[in-house]
Design brief:
single chain, about 1350 residues, alpha+beta, nine-stranded mixed sheet, four-stranded antiparallel sheet, 29 strands, about 45% helix, about 10% strand, extended, disordered N terminus
Length: about 1350
């Protein structure tokens, strides 16, 4: 729902009469405000008792805690969720609610009788029907106004300008209000004006007999009341069916002329009989509805601030509290404006959270301290002086605090606390809360006034003031003479209400409060009076007052004196009343009952709703129903069936006050003894006080103020005795040469105050005389010290006096003066010695000046300070010069730094920046030496890399000094880096990162100190040798696999280092490297993307080098020469340049050799008989030399066109060389290509290996393999082939006539062992698993032939 139902234009401060403008709510008298000291604040209930007589005169008071008392707010804001109440402001005030209820009842009365009534207008304004009703009642009622012609006076009372509308007003009253008034008097039991007469039944009946009655138009299909055998509920007759009405609620019949007031015709709408109408009108119960939205604290605060800002059209925090107060009461008393707000009231702190720290949520030391604070409301009701501590049940709002989250205009109506207890309310934070209070002395006047102002409300609900739903303006109370006071509660303030003090108030904005109840001994008789009043109104008790008294009796040992006396007096009254009531019922049978074992709702009087504890009346007919002894006669059962349930017998009841009375004299006597000690002429000993304290502990008086004071005196006396013994022992300790006892350090003022405290103690302290003598010695020493300090003595004399002071073991200002004088003399000596040194530390100068500043000015001290300052100033100037030079741009030269250091040496100071300047110079010279060493090493053939040059350049740039070679080195490094990047783009391929590595022969980059060129030449031969070994090893591995000497699965190939199968587990096509003779998966080396490969079937005609053998992009020789020329033109000497130069040199030498061989055998290509030519001109040695030259060319990381010619020549020779000249064929075959028999481990679901054994499982072969194997018995001369040719799915080789043409990579084949024809597994209806289990397979054709 909206918080503001009317428009903003309608919600404005209305102008008031001049008399009202003169009166302000700020004129109300202010309630008492108290500011306790820290000592007073330490005991809350003791402090409240001390101010009770003054405080209760205003009913409510404010207690402002001492400065610094501020408990941390301990609510978890994110988890604090609550649903507030909705308060409609114009329904809170008593008169306004009477107006609303009257108008609502009037409208219901006519509506439920089928009549729509509109409010009439008189003189162009609506007629206030409630005001008209009140004025007519004041003049004696309708008949009185008519007979006495009072209607003109009614007009005047209603503030009409003249008397002309008198007749109109009478007609409106007679037609609209009067029937309703008669109805309420007859059917609702209201006692209105005495001369309000009934509209006679005879008058209407007579009128109807004279004229024929006609029903009202019934166009809306109304009920017709013409039924036979219906008898009127009033006259009991069934005649005149045409005048009979049936109730739309209960269907009971009534004559229209028998009704009171009677009707002249049948109503056209719905109609209710008087009984149903009375129920409908009286069923409204006033209270606050719950809001439909749940809030967190932050959400509610945002809503509250927004509402206040919109309402007052300014920032929420800037609205004056006086304006809020005036507007609040205007809205409450104005029935024409409908403003609703929300109030988070009566929220249980045990379920949500308390604003005070508790032991459960306290995390910091401050929170833990406040968790035990006596003003913490979470345990305030259980304080020692509180009567409510004897209630063990956690009563919400009484013992367990309630929290309140308010917004502007949210309010709490006039009420007194449950059982007239005290209440305490603390505001944690937020905007102020305005309170109004009526003391107990004005409580009766307040109740009489509100009943007089709104009698209709109390007629219907006698206990209305206990429901917190009705309020009255404090101005009205003030005007009527009821004492009313006001307070404004700010964050950190406590508000305390006293027993039977009516209080109300409202919130000026968003705030958070917390409250609970408590009760001291003086409340006990008031609590009993409250229960008696509750019985009159039939109000339920929150707790049983009798049970509380008896719980206190059961714990008599812990009662304080005033509590015991008050309890005793109240017990006498309670027991006397109980015995008197039992006496009148002594003829009824009795039975013991432990009332405390029953829940409160099971021991409530049926008549007055009081909670019983001492006794009750129960009948055997309804044992669950109880009556108190006061209402025993209300039981419908005869006394023979009644039983008096009792908690205590008569004898036990009589003994109850005596058990309390026994404690009172004993405690009073002990209290008098303690108080009497103050009046004795001779001070008692501490031992005597200890005995009194022991008696208090034995008799359980430890919670009394007297015991606390006694204990405090004893503790102070013991402390004084302890200190006195320590001080008196000084003489004995000081006489010992090697005294190691800890000294007691106190000042002379503390000692003086201590002696004063000992004198003021109400008990005797031993050895106090010796302590006084010691004080005299101390005073004498201080006087001698003062005289010595005024003279100029030697340091040794002051030191002797300082030693004497240590024996006094007291803190004196003269001792500090002695120490200061000794320090001054020592400082003069130290500074004089310091200035004589050849080199003075800069820190020593600063320390000397800092220490010297603590001494008073003398000529000697000033001279020494000036000398120190001169030295320090010179050093600071040098430091500033050095700092400026080091940060200068352009950077300083080495000569300037050298000059700066010479200047520091002349000053004779050890300066902080000097080591840094020296370090910079050393680093700069080292840098120049490193650069010279690099040049020298280059002349010896040792070259520096680009990264090393960059590092050297970075070191030089970081030095804050100008270096002559830095610019040249910068240009050189930039050029070297540019050349290196360009060369890397030309040579380096993916997988290799270092340019020098790929330009050099394998294994040439060792860590030895040989020249690079020498290392490159030596590594070339090693590279060739290592490659030959690798080729031989790979050929041997392939040959062993073909012969079945090793398993194929044991071998790993390729850069992936897996077997001949791919990572997915299927046969993978593989290609052999023509340099290292290792095998590589086509997918792993992307063979299909090779620049010389367009079709995998011609791989045998293409030379292939694997990624491990071809480490670079292999640019042309011309490209390499261009890079080398660029490098030499730049004047750079890099190891990469040396490696590139050597690489080009190798390539050119190789080209010359190859060209001579190509030229020698150029006629071979055109020879008609190549075999004859080879046999005549090419020996095996020649062939091997050509192959070695091919290997050396492949190792050169450049693209050499001669390699193609040499490759073609070698292929022609290998094709026609005689068998004894051939190399082992296995080196150029794929693994497993031998026809030797060996078992296969490859899965049958895959196509058979094209080079598989013919004697192995035939289901692993494919028709294409059969053709390739049968084409030649000679060793294949193909230099590379696929290790597994994938099945193409073709059907031309399947021997089944109607082949199914299966497709895919996993098409299975099987070969007949008789005809050796091939079949698809699917075409001969076999699965892979079945085919694996067949040893010898015979095809269907062979089976039929057999």
């Amino acid at each position: 729902m909206s918080f503001r139902k009317c428009s903003e234009k309608s919600i404005k401060i209305m102008p008031k009469a001049s008399a009202e403008k003169e009166w302000k709510f700020s004129m109300l008298p202010k309630a008492n405000v108290f500011h306790p000291t820290l000592e007073e604040f330490a005991n809350p209930l003791k402090y409240i008792s001390s101010i009770r007589e003054v405080a209760k005169t205003t009913g409510i008071i404010k207690v402002v805690p001492p400065e610094g008392w501020a408990p941390p707010f301990s609510v978890d804001i994110a988890k604090f969720l609550f649903t507030p109440r909705v308060q409609k402001l114009n329904e809170l005030e008593a008169k306004s609610r009477c107006h609303f209820q009257f108008m609502e009842g009037l409208a219901k009365f006519w509506h439920l009788q089928g009549v729509d009534v509109k409010i009439p207008h008189v003189e162009y304004k609506p007629l206030d029907m409630y005001a008209l009703h009140k004025v007519v009642q004041d003049f004696g009622g309708y008949e009185k106004c008519c007979s006495s012609k009072k209607w003109s006076a009614v007009c005047k009372k209603l503030k009409f300008k003249d008397r002309s509308p008198a007749n109109t007003i009478r007609q409106h009253y007679e037609k609209i209000v009067h029937p309703y008034i008669v109805f309420r008097r007859v059917h609702c039991g209201e006692n209105l004006a005495s001369d309000e007469k009934n509209i006679t039944v005879e008058l209407i009946k007579e009128k109807m007999e004279k004229t024929e009655y006609k029903h009202a138009n019934n166009t809306d299909d109304k009920k017709e009341l013409l039924y036979e055998n219906l008898f009127c509920k009033v006259c009991k007759n069934g005649d005149r069916d045409d005048a009979m009405l049936l109730c739309d609620e209960c269907d009971e019949p009534y004559h229209i002329y028998c009704l009171n007031p009677p009707l002249e015709k049948i109503p056209s709408g719905e109609w209710r009989c008087p009984v149903c109408l009375a129920k409908e009108i009286d069923n409204r119960q006033f209270g606050f509805e719950q809001a439909k939205k749940e809030y967190t604290l932050s959400q509610f605060g945002q809503m509250a601030d927004n509402f206040k800002s919109r309402y007052f059209k300014m920032q929420a925090s800037e609205v004056p509290i006086d304006r809020v107060e005036e507007e609040f009461w205007r809205l409450v008393c104005c029935v024409d404006e409908d403003v609703a707000v929300e109030y988070g009231a009566d929220l249980l702190s045990s379920e949500l959270d308390s604003g005070f720290p508790t032991h459960q949520n306290a995390k910091t030391d401050i929170a833990k301290e406040y968790a035990d604070d006596p003003w913490n409301l979470t345990h305030f009701a259980d304080l020692e002086e509180s009567v409510l501590k004897y209630i063990t049940e956690p009563i919400s709002g009484v013992k367990i605090p309630w929290v309140y989250v308010g917004m502007v205009f949210s309010s709490f109506c006039w009420h007194v606390e449950d059982h007239w207890t005290y209440s305490i309310n603390y505001q944690h934070w937020g905007e102020s809360k305005v309170w109004y209070g009526v003391p107990d002395s004005g409580a009766q006047d307040f109740e009489d006034l509100i009943k007089k102002e709104a009698p209709e409300l109390f007629t219907k609900e006698p206990s209305l003031m206990h429901q917190l739903v009705t309020t009255l303006s404090p101005k009205l109370l003030h005007d009527k003479g009821v004492p009313v006071y006001t307070l404004r509660q700010l964050p950190g303030d406590f508000i305390i209400t006293f027993p039977r003090a009516y209080h109300a108030g409202f919130n000026s904005g968003f705030n958070f409060n917390e409250a609970c109840n408590f009760a001291t001994a003086d409340w006990i008789p008031l609590g009993r009076q409250c229960v008696d009043q509750y019985k009159e109104f039939g109000r339920y008790n929150v707790f049983s007052h009798e049970e509380l008294l008896l719980r206190m009796v059961s714990k008599t040992d812990g009662l304080l004196l005033d509590m015991a006396e008050t309890l005793y007096n109240d017990l006498l009254v309670t027991v006397e009343r109980e015995l008197g009531q039992r006496e009148s019922l002594k003829h009824i049978q009795t039975e013991f009952l432990e009332f405390e074992e029953l829940p409160d709702e099971k021991r409530v009087c049926r008549m007055c709703n009081c909670t019983m504890f001492l006794s009750s009346i129960v009948c055997s007919c309804h044992p669950e129903i109880m009556y108190c002894l006061l209402h025993a006669s209300s039981s419908p059962c005869p006394t023979s069936k009644q039983t008096l349930k009792y908690r205590y017998t008569v004898e036990e009841l009589k003994e109850l006050p005596n058990s309390v009375q026994k404690r009172i004299p004993e405690m009073r006597m002990w209290t008098n003894e303690v108080n009497g000690l103050k009046n004795r002429s001779e001070k008692p000993l501490v031992e005597e006080l200890e005995k009194l304290a022991e008696r208090a502990v034995a008799n359980k008086y430890t919670e009394t103020d007297e015991y606390r004071d006694l204990r405090s005196v004893i503790d102070k006396a013991n402390q004084c005795i302890k200190i006195t013994n320590q001080l008196v022992a000084i003489k004995r300790r000081s006489s010992r040469v090697h005294n190691t006892s800890p000294a007691l350090k106190i000042s002379i003022d503390e000692l003086s105050n201590f002696l004063k405290q000992v004198t003021e103690l109400p008990c005797h302290v031993p050895d106090s005389t010796l302590l006084q003598e010691h004080y005299v010695r101390i005073v004498d020493f201080t006087e001698r010290c003062d005289r010595a300090l005024n003279k100029k003595l030697a340091k040794s004399q002051y030191e002797d006096m300082l030693k004497e002071s240590r024996r006094l073991e007291i803190d004196l200002p003269q001792i500090h003066a002695l120490k200061q004088e000794i320090k001054k003399i020592q400082w003069i000596e130290d500074v004089t010695e310091l200035l004589k040194r050849a080199t003075i530390s800069f820190s020593d100068l600063q320390e000397g000046l800092c220490e010297g500043a603590n001494f008073p000015n003398t000529k000697q001290i000033e001279d020494l300070r000036d000398k120190l300052e001169d030295k320090l100033m010179a050093g600071q100037r040098w430091e500033e010069k050095a700092q400026g030079l080091l940060s200068a741009r352009p950077r300083p030269t080495l000569s300037k730094l050298h000059k700066l250091l010479k200047e520091a040496e002349r000053l004779g100071l050890s300066l902080p920046t000097a080591p840094s300047v020296k370090s910079i110079m050393v680093k700069a010279m080292d840098w120049g030496k490193t650069l010279s060493d690099i040049k020298l090493e280059q002349s010896k053939g040792h070259y520096t890399s680009v990264k090393q040059l960059e590092g050297l350049l970075l070191k030089g740039q970081m030095l804050p000094v100008s270096l002559p070679e830095i610019d040249r080195l910068t240009n050189k490094v930039a050029a070297a880096k540019a050349w290196h990047d360009k060369a890397s783009k030309v040579f380096v391929r993916k997988g290799f990162t270092k340019l020098l590595e790929v330009l050099s022969p394998r294994g040439s980059l060792s860590n030895d100190n040989r020249p690079l060129e020498e290392s490159l030449r030596e590594s070339t031969a090693k590279e060739f040798t290592e490659m030959k070994k690798r080729r031989g090893a790979n050929m041997l591995r392939t040959e062993q696999e073909e012969k079945g000497m090793i398993s194929e699965d044991d071998n790993v190939y390729c850069i992936c280092r897996r077997g001949w199968k791919t990572s997915k587990g299927v046969d993978g096509a593989m290609t052999q490297c023509d340099l290292c003779y290792d095998w590589f998966h086509n997918k792993c080396v992307s063979i299909a993307k090779h620049k010389d490969v367009k079709n995998s079937d011609i791989m045998k005609d293409v030379k292939y080098l694997c990624p491990l053998c071809s480490r670079t992009k292999r640019p042309s020789v011309d490209q390499a020469l261009g890079l080398l020329i660029t490098l030499r033109q730049a004047g750079l000497a890099l190891p990469e340049g040396v490696a590139l130069s050597y690489l080009i040199e190798r390539a050119m030498e190789w080209q010359e050799k190859v060209r001579s061989i190509i030229a020698k055998h150029r006629s071979l290509h055109n020879a008609p008989d190549k075999q004859a030519y080879i046999d005549q001109n090419v020996s095996l040695k020649d062939r091997n030399q050509i192959e070695e030259l091919m290997i050396k060319g492949d190792l050169i990381e450049l693209h050499l066109e001669e390699t193609t010619d040499l490759w073609n020549l070698l292929n022609i020779i290998d094709e026609h060389v005689v068998p004894e000249k051939k190399q082992p064929a296995s080196k150029r075959s794929s693994p497993g290509s031998s026809t030797a028999s060996k078992p296969s481990s490859r899965p049958s679901s895959k196509p058979p290996s094209p080079t598989g054994s013919q004697t192995s499982n035939k289901r692993r072969k494919t028709p294409s393999d059969e053709r390739s194997n049968g084409s030649s018995s000679s060793v294949s001369t193909t230099r590379k082939r696929r290790k597994d040719r994938k099945n193409t799915g073709s059907d031309e080789l399947c021997s089944v006539q109607d082949c199914l043409r299966p497709e895919g990579a996993k098409v299975g084949w099987i070969q007949c062992d008789k005809c050796e024809k091939w079949y698809h597994l699917e075409c001969v209806a076999l699965s892979n698993k079945e085919a694996e289990q067949i040893e010898d397979y015979t095809c269907p054709v062979c089976v039929n032939t057999t």
